[in-house]
Amino acid sequence: MHQPAEKARKWSLHFQQTLIDQWHNDLTTPYAGDYSLADRESAKLSFTSTLFIGRRLWKNAAVYFNPEVAGGSGLSGARGVAGFTNGETFRIGDPSPQLYLARLYLRQVFALGTATDFDLDDLNQVAGPTPQRYFALNLGKFSTADFFDQNSYSHDPRTQFLNWSLMSAGAWDYAANTRGYTVGGVFEYVTPGFTARFASTLMPTLANGPVLDFHYGTAHAETVELTKVYHLKGRQGTIRALGFRNVAAMATYNTAIRLAQLTGEQPDVTLVRHDGHTKLGFGLNAEQEIAKNVGLFARVSYNDGKNETWAFTEIDHSASLGIASTGDRWHRPDDRLGAAIVVNGLSPEHRAYLGAGGYGFIVGDGPGTGYVANSGALNYGLEQIGEVYYSFALPQYHASLSPDYQLVINPAYNRDRSGPVHVVAVRLHVEF
């Protein structure tokens, strides 16, 4: 709950806490690997707490500081499903609460003209006048997803869909450490109907690693996005086109397979990593209001899939479609309802690597039963996920309570372990 500000302020102070308890049904599968979704496990609880501190420094400039605490665990250690089911979990083995710096960055806006709007007091936003047209420079530590691949209906697992491949474009291997943050700069050109953004940021030292690589010459990521606002029969819509290029000491899947063929062992990307490998990809992201407080959204994304996944999750192409609504029609305007489907897939090289018994950092069902070296074990199928949630607003407590259901077919792209997997969650979110 954020109240409009009547005048400009120098400070912004907010807080959020999100707790998610998640469970899946018992499975009966012919085999499992080290990174498979467990056939049976107890419910898993995760939580994050974030303090959002903003301070206006001078005209059109502010600094933002976000300490964060996270703890708990995702199902199966946040492994076994490429489009993982809880966007608030990280692939970190220790479930005990950890305090860390999420964001610390400077934002400077350069006005282009005299027309202004008024920014309300909000998360990482200090109340005050802001230019309608401007350049902006953001420098420091942040999440790349703070600026790119935004979507009004499907972007925030704390209040919207929980699934990883619904909160962001699944094939966008966006630069981030294990907890989702990086260091770099974002340049923005913003007008009322069109926006262009460019970022250059650091990559982690290892795939899914907690430490960022400051050797910028050999490890970096560039992201560009164009955003156009339009109106269709009086209803606003937005379309975004994103492209990215990552450079890091990645391994090539085919190189790992060739080495395994020579040694008779399972392929292992960690044995063949080399500086200078790249990953290229793109994403399209659209949202369209179809009635008052009801909107559709869709995403498609793709990366070349030749080199290993390095930061986000093991998806090389993805498509999603969904709908979201407020509770206006049933007289609960602060409630939210959402439903979506997403389909994820792999490149031929990535598929062959997993099929030969290899592991990524989030999926890998191992060699399977009756394994013969390099024989292949993955019975490949597209990973298919459906999700529906309802958010009950509790405005007197600045909170919402959200039951959530996900259906996962072919987790980790394996028809032999097709499930289906039924995942049920309850989310409590507090924000003020």
What are the SSEs and their pairings?
Blueprint: E1 11-24, E2 44-58, E3 61-72, E4 98-111, E5 116-119, E6 128-131, E7 134-142, H1 164-167, E8 182-190, E9 194-201, E10 220-232, E11 235-248, H2 253-263, E12 277-291, E13 294-303, E14 317-327, E15 332-345, H3 348-355, E16 383-394, E17 399-409, E18 421-431
Antiparallel strand pairs: 1-2, 1-18, 2-3, 3-4, 4-7, 5-6, 7-8, 8-9, 9-10, 10-11, 11-12, 12-13, 13-14, 14-15, 15-16, 16-17, 17-18
Task: Describe the protein in words.
There is one protein chain. It is built from three helices and 18 strands. With 432 residues, it is mostly beta strands. A hairpin with a 2-residue loop joins strand 10 and strand 11. Helix 2 runs parallel beside helix 3. 5% of the residues lie in helices and 46% in strands. The protein is globular, with a radius of gyration of 22 Å. About 2% of the residues have low confidence.
